[in-house]
Specification:
alpha+beta; 20 helices; globular; RNA-binding
RNA sequence: GCCCCCUUAGCUCAGUCGGCAGAGCACAGCCAUGGUAAGGCUGGUGUCGUCGGUUCGAUUCCGACAGGGGGCUCCA
């Protein structure tokens, strides 16, 4: 007999030589059906693995996160098999499970490329493999055997050689999974018992990807797919993708007449139309008012500067490929600014500073220009002319920690005002290559950590992921459909104060180096605009809506009353428009609703005499609402 | 920058197995005055992304380029 411990702490006795599948079956039929793998003493293994005496064993089911991972990875193997069937001699690299699916990287004979039509052929072949219900048979090989088995697969050889060098935690063997005489793939596992367990998948797209993510190494053909434990889960996923497409800010930008990207201007350079411009102004006005209350000073700096400034700042040394090319003028070389910080530092340095005026908080909506590679542009989310809501805070060493805590609280408060509530932060610490002193890094990192603890939001620590000049906090938000976006960033710059030889006079009458905090709250106004547009699916909250109320007279002879209602709302500070009765009422309601106007107000005979309006809002429809009641409701929604 | 896909009316798209193109919405005019998501009739609209090649003839086939989308890489 073999005795194993289940996750709930109970023991179970099984005949000697029992496998994970036997265990699942002994617990229940449902579990046996849903099982795809097991975890034995914390290590994932195949369902067919023999259970050792005394082990702790957990059955992994298809619908769990780990189970989906196994399904997806197994589906990736089926993909590789289908590709090698259709393109004999194809080389394959890696095929991991990823969020929502999997991919596999290939190199086709003769450098051929996959087309979209190929995806259909491959998917058809995959379905045949699933129908054949081929077993996934695990094989253990020595490194030498592995090298010989995969002698025609250079990418696999590189992986095996990596294992040999100790990257595989000292293993001197490699494992492979064989489906039939023709197909065997190097893999750590685990896999589902057989291909018949798969089937709820779809190949999504083909893309190029560099081997090991290195653009100097060969470019491979990557196929992406999605895979789920049931038809319903797959369909739900595809439905979510459709939903995301409906929310696409580029589509909404056109439908709601907010902005566009004229090809005449160039990629990544949007123009905002009147309604988009108004939303943007409302965002900026609110932001400015809050910054003013929080003790910021407003500065303005130009878009160009001489090369010497960016030599001093180090941007030309470190960031040249991200900058627009230089312009020669009267013997000097000018660059469009890629960042605002050097200019703000010059404001600081315009005279001698005393500790008494610190912290000095300089704020600007500063438009910077970055030469983003054409392939990375992505609507408003990635542009080449970026308006940062940028501030630089200069403070004494003693002020650093309290300032950062206040700052993070301020950032979160403003984000909440825009309807974003679900935050996750990331604290990035000192990388291997860095500038400055370790004590400064430690102090800055501790202060950032303390700010996160004070704010009480969830955060992860990304060890060594900081910029070479600064540890930082990145704030991510989740939008209405659960997607994660990086917005705000707070960085403690450990380089620029040095490079610009910044100083202040302390209480001791000595000269000291200030600390410098960079921070952007929206990140970029354009990007934040795009995120908000997708978050709200175009239906901005009332205070941000370009048109807050539409007044619709039922017939022409109600137009005079409608105009009085509109005037009354306008006096109360509501952005209101009237849709005259030259079309049917239903048509005009539809039009206003499609424009996402939060309050559609219908006035007719009843209202004329009673001084009321019909209110069709996002929460429902009401008839005969007294105008004064409506004004009261609206007043509460005109501010964030 | 690299790979795949796309580009036909203001928008969404159909179409021509090579013979100068179409539907809905939008727009304009007229009629309809209608209590909550498309009333009716009439009408105009296109260098079929650009340039080149093949052809008697190219929007259609081929190539290059441009713009857009999805990825990769990058994001001091």
């Amino acid at each position: 007999m073999t005795t194993v411990t289940l996750p709930d702490g109970s023991n179970r006795e099984l005949p000697a030589g029992s496998t994970g599948a036997d265990l699942a079956a002994s617990i229940g039929r449902g579990l046996a059906k849903a099982a795809v793998a097991v975890r034995i003493d914390g290590r994932e293994a195949d369902l067919g693995a023999v259970l050792p005496e005394g082990a702790t064993v957990e059955v992994i089911t298809a619908g769990s996160a780990e189970g989906r991972h196994v399904l997806r990875h197994s589906t990736a193997h089926v993909l590789a098999q289908a590709v090698t069937d259709l393109w004999p001699g194809a080389r394959f690299a890696i095929g991991p499970a990823i969020e929502d699916g999997f991919y596999y990287d290939f190199e086709l004979p003769g450098g051929a490329h996959f087309s979209d039509d190929d995806l259909e052929r491959i998917e058809a072949r995959m379905r045949e493999i699933v129908a054949e219900d081929q077993p996934f048979v695990r094989e253990e090989h020595t490194v030498e055997e592995g090298l010989s088995l995969f002698s025609d697969q250079p990418y696999k050889l590189e992986i095996i050689n990596g294992v040999d060098r100790g990257e595989g935690a000292g293993d001197s063997t490699v494992s492979a999974y064989r489906n039939n005489d023709r197909f065997v793939d190097l893999c750590r596992g685990p896999h589902v018992p057989s291909t018949g367990r798969l089937g709820h998948f779809k190949l999504m797209k083909v893309a190029a990807a560099y081997w090991r993510g290195d653009e100097h190494r060969p470019q491979l053909q990557r196929i992406y797919g999605t895979a789920w434990e049931s038809k319903a889960a797959l369909e739900e996923h595809l439905r979510r993708l459709e939903e995301a497409e409906k929310r696409d800010h580029r589509r909404l930008g056109a439908e709601l007449d907010l902005f566009h990207f004229p090809p005449e201007i160039g990629g990544g350079l949007p123009v905002f139309h009147p309604k988009g411009g108004l939303v943007r102004k409302l965002m900026e006005d609110y932001s400015k008012a809050e910054h003013e209350k929080a003790g910021y000073d407003f500065v303005w700096t130009p878009h160009l500067a001489k090369s010497t400034l960016f030599e001093t700042s180090g941007h030309l040394e470190w960031y040249r490929e991200g900058m627009y090319p230089p312009m020669e003028m009267e013997g000097a070389t000018y660059y469009p600014k890629p960042m605002n910080c050097p200019m703000h530092i010059l404001v600081y340095k315009s005279r001698q500073r005393s500790y008494r005026e610190l912290p000095l908080r300089l704020f600007e909506f500063g438009t910077v220009y970055r030469f983003e590679r054409s392939g990375v542009l992505n609507g408003l989310l990635r542009v080449r002319g970026i308006t940062q809501d940028d501030a630089h805070i200069f403070c004494t060493p003693e002020q650093l920690s309290p300032e950062l805590s206040d700052l993070l609280g301020f950032v979160l408060r403003i984000l909440r005002a825009f309807g974003l509530e679900d935050f996750e932060a990331e604290l990035s610490t000192r990388p291997d290559k860095f500038v400055g002193e370790i004590e400064d890094w430690d102090k800055a990192t501790d202060s950032l950590r303390q700010a996160l603890d004070t704010a009480g939001i969830a955060y992860a620590v990304a060890e060594g992921e900081g910029a070479f000049y600064a540890p930082k906090i990145d704030v991510h938000v989740r939008d209405a459909i659960g997607r994660r976006w990086q917005v705000s960033t707070l960085q403690v710059d450990l380089q620029e104060p040095q490079r610009f030889d910044m100083e202040f006079v302390g209480a001791d009458n000595g000269r000291h180096r200030p600390y410098m905090i960079h921070r952007a709250l929206f990140g970029s106004v354009e990007r934040f605009f795009g995120i908000l547009l997708e978050h709200y699916a175009g239906a901005f909250p009332t205070w941000l809506s370009p048109v807050q109320a539409s007044v619709l007279p039922v017939r022409s002879d109600h137009e005079e009353y409608a105009a009085r209602v509109a005037a009354r709302l306008r006096e109360a500070g509501v952005r209101v428009e009237m849709l005259a009765a030259d079309e049917q009422l239903g048509y005009r309601v539809r039009k206003a609703k499609q424009e996402k106007v939060p309050y559609v107000l219908v006035v007719g005979d009843q209202d004329l005499h009673a001084g009321t309006v019909g209110v069709n809002s996002r929460t429902g429809e009401e008839r005969g609402v007294p105008l004064e009641d409506l004004l009261g409701r609206l007043a509460a929604e005109l501010r964030p």
